[in-house]
Amino acid sequence: MKIVIAGGSIAGLTAALTLDCIGHDVTIYERSPVPLRGQGGGVAVLRRMMAFLEQHGRHCRHMISVPTHRRRWIDRDGTLTRDEPEMLPFSSWDAVYRSLCETLPAGRIRYGRTVTGFTQDADGVDVQIDDERLRADVLLAADGTGSRLRARLFPDYAPSFAGYLAWRGIVDEAGFDVSAIATLVENMTLHKAPGELFMAFLIPALDGSLQSGKRRFNWLWYRNEVDPDALRRHLTDRTGQVHHASLHPGQLADEAVATLRSLAAERLPAVLSQLVLATRAPFLQVIFDALSPDFVDGRVALIGDAACTVRPHTASGTSKAAHDAVSLAEALPANATDVAERLARWSAQRRTEVKSLLEKGPQLAASFGLGTPHRR
């Protein structure tokens, strides 16, 4: 079965891998002209997807991770207020992405190509890719929270702003004196204040090293933001362009970076503010809730954040995308003839499964005093 995937980030790659290993003819079209890099911070390891691939004779490159042993809460003065066991391995977006790309057979990703539209009938989908049109059996939209393909299917639907955002950053462990970061190493460290939450933990080095002194700190600073004008300023990049949901490393305006560093010095414990101050290229993620009205229309299916966007507190965005991919592959064998029916059944089941995960994010946020009350 010929399957076209729009979007070559984690969701698109996991879907390509699971579908390819059971015999589908899969091609990813990624609008970036080069492989992606530095699009995110710490992520959970994709255990279910790796197990699925191994069941089908495909071995995914080892996804390295840094374990956290304790969850430690500190106050404004840096005093420890709560200390709990926490065994959770964190990899990095870069490491997971690289592992997926290296496991996928060569030639499956076409860079610098954008899926711009489609039409479909009972037998297949005609996919518009820039100025080329090709025929596929299935089109998968893996183009993120602001999915343009979802907008074509459900033009009246839009993700809901959660009332807060996350300033984020990655900084090398080597840039700090050992004594200055001793309490942060191999722990998740958190600080809570009214309307904000800060957390930091270690992730592998860009080259995958786990050696002490070569790893990186990943930090997130959640802050409430209800002013639409302020939100627009935050999302205006250094060229003056306003973005919808995020700014990647290097896109933040100099004024925004200066304001962020000033706030960090003013509001955070010194052991945490040093991470922000040392980060060369912080980035920004606006927090949304999104659950598409349906995950499927005919032979077009939504996966990853295009289908459902969960909040980062759940630590499950990447694992949810992998579960989307595995469940889709289980529902759609290569020799299937009742394609639309199988996709419809998959959509109904998978949408029900992710609803509880979607609800978990607002519940966690409310416990931290973040965002606006969740409306069903």
From TrEMBL:
<dbReference type="Pfam" id="PF22607">
    <property type="entry name" value="FAD_binding-like"/>
</dbReference>
<dbReference type="GO" id="GO:0071949">
    <property type="term" value="F:FAD binding"/>
</dbReference>
<dbReference type="Pfam" id="PF01494">
    <property type="entry name" value="FAD_binding_3"/>
</dbReference>
<feature type="domain" description="2,6-dihydroxypyridine 3-monooxygenase substrate binding">
    <location>
        <begin position="161"/>
        <end position="289"/>
    </location>
</feature>
<dbReference type="InterPro" id="IPR054707">
    <property type="entry name" value="DhpH_subs-bd"/>
</dbReference>
<dbReference type="InterPro" id="IPR053212">
    <property type="entry name" value="DHP_3-monooxygenase"/>
</dbReference>
<dbReference type="InterPro" id="IPR002938">
    <property type="entry name" value="FAD-bd"/>
</dbReference>
<protein>
    <recommendedName>
        <fullName>FAD-binding domain-containing protein</fullName>
    </recommendedName>
</protein>
<dbReference type="InterPro" id="IPR036188">
    <property type="entry name" value="FAD/NAD-bd_sf"/>
</dbReference>
<feature type="domain" description="FAD-binding">
    <location>
        <begin position="294"/>
        <end position="357"/>
    </location>
</feature>
